[in-house]
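PT: before anyone asks, these are the final sequences, not the draft ones from last week. 364 residues across everything. Please model them as a single complex and drop the result in this thread when it's through.
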Amino acid sequence: MTEQLHVEQIGHGPLTGGLSPDEFKLAFRNHPAGVAVITADAGEGPVALTATSVFSVSAEPPILVFSISDQSSSTPTIARSATVVVHLIDAEHLDIAKLGATSGIDRFADTSIWARLPTGEPYFTGVKQWIRGEVIDQLRAGTSTVIAVHALEAKLTGDAVPLVYHSRTWHQLGDHSVIPAP
Amino acid sequence: MTEQLHVEQIGHGPLTGGLSPDEFKLAFRNHPAGVAVITADAGEGPVALTATSVFSVSAEPPILVFSISDQSSSTPTIARSATVVVHLIDAEHLDIAKLGATSGIDRFADTSIWARLPTGEPYFTGVKQWIRGEVIDQLRAGTSTVIAVHALEAKLTGDAVPLVYHSRTWHQLGDHSVIPAP
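LR: through. Structure below.
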């Protein structure tokens, strides 16, 4: 059944009906998310984009996924890259999240905030936590592509203040936001 | 390149190397997420599970994705269901999120909290916001499956207190968590 739908609707024809774009966006406006900045270089220079669509799907093997919209200028490069760096952004590095979400600028103009890993990928050096991985699969979904990444290497720290994006507003988590046990 | 990796690594052989499961889990412990409860019935009774891996990938057509682990008892049913209900859980309905995350219980024992939609799917009637959709594609990733859903119908409200899961702790967003503009 699923395969059949895949062939008929995603592979060879448009999905019709369902929620309007406005209804759908309204629904997800109330779904908070962590924030990531993804960087890559497919051989033609570094690209970066901010995503609120990163999650882990499997710990063994370690695999994460994220989605990239056809509307982002960085998408063609990321879709062609063999490897990417996924920065998990904390509240202290909100400026990097904003940088990756701003259109029409050179996101790598400030050469003091980024470098290249020994393996060649561009990355933002100040970010406390990132994962470097290999793109292993892609799934087309409407006007976006879901990318699956095998995590190869990471920089990890435990002391970051978590950053959340919700309804076009940036939030930080802390003792103030914890729901007390009943 | 990606297709080749797909065939060699996901389709026909194990991914090797990369982060250990503990390293990978540690990295994502610092990545906050919104909370959803997914319900379905493939014809053998209702199932529910709590997921922190739901995101929208496309507004037109309206498509969301989530991942389900092979370890969850509800996964085989959800993977075989033609349609699902994705409840976007607010802080007031944390009990439903906990219900969907508790193993070894009958999640539908309390018949006062759920019903069936006219189209047949089980859903939790008190939850403020949910999306009913058709499963249109699946992507295997390690020990999980990423499910793509075409959103057909939704109940929407604007006044929910956003719920976030982070590092094994439940948080709520509000004025207290907003990061002030610089």
